[in-house]
Amino acid sequence: MYDAAIDGTPTPRAEPVTRHNLLDAVTARILRHIQEEGLRSGDRLPSTRALAERFLVATPTLREALRRLEATGAVEMRHGSGVYVRADLSRLILVNPNRTELAAETLADLLEARELIEPHLAEAATRNASDEQLAVIAAALDRAGHVLDDDAELHVANMDFHRAISRYAGNAVLAQIIDSLVDIYRQEQRAILEMYGDRANDHRAHLDILTAMRERKPVKARRLMAAHLRDVRAVVTGSSAR
């Protein structure tokens, strides 16, 4: 937009940057940083001070932009640890920050949805994943095995295991669906972990799935994943596994 000067020459109209526009700009720059650096879910961002200095903004403004991104599920701010990428930024579904209370039927529906998708992904990943990618899946389980007494860390490691399988199955859309389910229903997933209770048995089931994958037995991996999720759903819903 232009204003006319006294002599008739057009001059640019002043457009001060509002705080709202500044937050939008900082938020966009953080997302661009994640994309340009190729950061994936679980990767750690630089410190808030380093990001603030990089983007030439005050640290409180940077933190507010990060809180915006956390509300949509794009990042996770872990107290005393740092800020981590949570979502695959190419996906179309992000977390709704206006969460309601847990509902029992939601837990059952979530597990049923996973039971319909994840056995197929376990089979596909067994066929398609490279040895290096299987090592990433194994690393998530190794972390889980060391934190069986820490529900917060165990939840992260277990979900990383399921995310990795979906990521290496070879179907980007299904991988995004699982990634979205894990993030959107993070609260419910934690509740499921607490309700299932048997951490050691849960871990053994995951290890059995990994073994089938490493042995390149896709049908067995599919069967074990289906049985595992069916067992969890039976315990959580109080019904008998069929």
Task: Describe this structure as you would to a colleague.
The chain is mainly alpha-helical and 242 residues long. It folds into 2 domains: 13-85, Arc Repressor Mutant, subunit A (Orthogonal Bundle); 104-237, Up-down Bundle (Four Helix Bundle (Hemerythrin (Met), subunit A)), CATH 1.20.120.530. Helices cover 64% and strands 6% of the residues. It is built from 10 helices and 4 strands; from the N terminus they run ββαααββααααααα. It comes from Virgisporangium aurantiacum. This is GntR family transcriptional regulator. GO terms for molecular function: DNA binding; DNA-binding transcription factor activity. Keywords: DNA-binding, Transcription, Transcription regulation.
